[in-house]
Amino acid sequence: MGNNTVKQHFENAKKTGVLKISLQRLQDFPPQLRTFPNVLKTLDISGNRFTEIPKDIAKFTLIKHLNVSENRLTCLPDVLGDLVKMEVLLAMNNSITKVPRELGKLKNLKQVNLSCNQIDEFPVMLCGLNHLDVLDLSKNKITAVPAEVKNLQVTELNLNQNQISSLSEEIADTPRLKTLRIEENCLQVTAFTPRILKESKICNLSVEGNLFNSKQFADLDGYDDYMERYTAVRKKMF
């Protein structure tokens, strides 16, 4: 990205509040960002070669949409917790191993995508965020879904392609969860207890690629209750 192009992007961003410097193979953050006024509502730095996000980002307190996907990040900075207006956080396709607890301050979050990283623990700090609707944690290294999941407010949770061998029964208490994707993990069929199948609001449950077959799943106590919810939703769609 040439200097003139960078300058033009920043000039436009002063007027629009949208700064997009994606797919440029940048390794270092443009120095203009350090002195840029606090007007940004959207910042897209995806598709570069950044290994860290500078702490300077904390001053952009108006950001609602942040895209840091497809970089070389190994962590997210604690200062993201200062971006209290943020609604969408996209950080997929990095090498992130941990999620900072400060993300629990972001009460306006609606969508978080952390897929294709190296996260090995379920990010419980996201549980209880009342506006969070979609959480994508697919293609990570998570091994367990803990009891704190009962406070998760999402309608859709994607846990496909992790290493999950433990699923807390408390997921049945998740108040709004309708779609649970948990394909290609390490779950036994007994992980799906009668309480989960009978008492949860889950009506779209994807379980293929675990340590059981479809017949074993269909034989579970509570499977018919789950299928009633599944069928009812399908009838509303058509």
UniProtKB/TrEMBL annotation:
Q: Which UniProt keywords apply?
A: Leucine-rich repeat, Repeat
* Pfam families attached to this UniProt entry: LRR_1 (PF00560), LRR_8 (PF13855)
Q: Identify the SMART domains for this entry.
A: LRR_BAC (SM00364), LRR_TYP (SM00369)
Q: Give a Gene Ontology cellular component term annotated to this protein.
A: cytoplasm
| Gene3D superfamilies the record matches | Ribonuclease Inhibitor
Which InterPro entries does the annotation name?
Leu-rich_rpt, Leu-rich_rpt_typical-subtyp, LRR_dom_sf, LRR_domain-containing
Question: What's the protein name?
Answer: Putative leucine-rich repeat lrr protein
